[in-house]
Amino acid sequence: MRFCREHLTLYAVTDRACLGARPLTDAVEASIRGGVTMVQLREKSLEVTDRGLFLSEAEELARICHKHGVPFIVNDDVKVAFESRADGVHLGQDDTDAKEARRILGNDAIIGVTARSVDEAVAAEAAGADYIGVGAVFGTATKMNTRHIGVDGLRAITSAVRVPAVAIGGVNLSNINELSGSGASGVAVVSAIFGASDIESECRELRRAAGGIL
Q1: CATH of 5-213, one of 3.20.20.70, 3.40.190.170, 3.20.20.20, 3.40.190.10
Q2: Helices 24-33 and 51-67 sit at what angle, rounded to 10 degrees?
């Protein structure tokens, strides 16, 4: 699927811990009905403890996303991204190099890279990243030991690169308006989506808010 910056408008990043007993597939379908524009499978525990289940989950979510015309991204694992026919991969600073991911996944793959500084963002762009995931912009409980860079840090990064950037880290309806004028092309949301009692409704509100400020 060809990438465009509009895919970043409301980018859902999964977190099984937020769901309770709800199936992840149902939650992702609800998020897409609510207006999510891209989905990333991020399940850190499965990546380590049960890679087979991680792959089967990726394959199922890829089918769901493609049914709705929404790009599907796998976090960290380039091989699972390839085997599940995901549209791309999102890489952290300690993961596979973006150039190597491009070699494996092909020219049409969507490659995202996390950056916490201008230097990291510039290097990711030079390595061929299609977009930069910038954060944590606000405080977040979904990632331990994550540095909070704030809106000023986000603005510095978006000013330094030409590829689009998506704000991640604690984004929700109470603070999304603070991103106005930051240069971000969208918001990546974890717990505010998958921890919501009504995921579809929450996504509608987030999509409306994102569209009004980005």
Answers
A1: 3.20.20.70
A2: 30
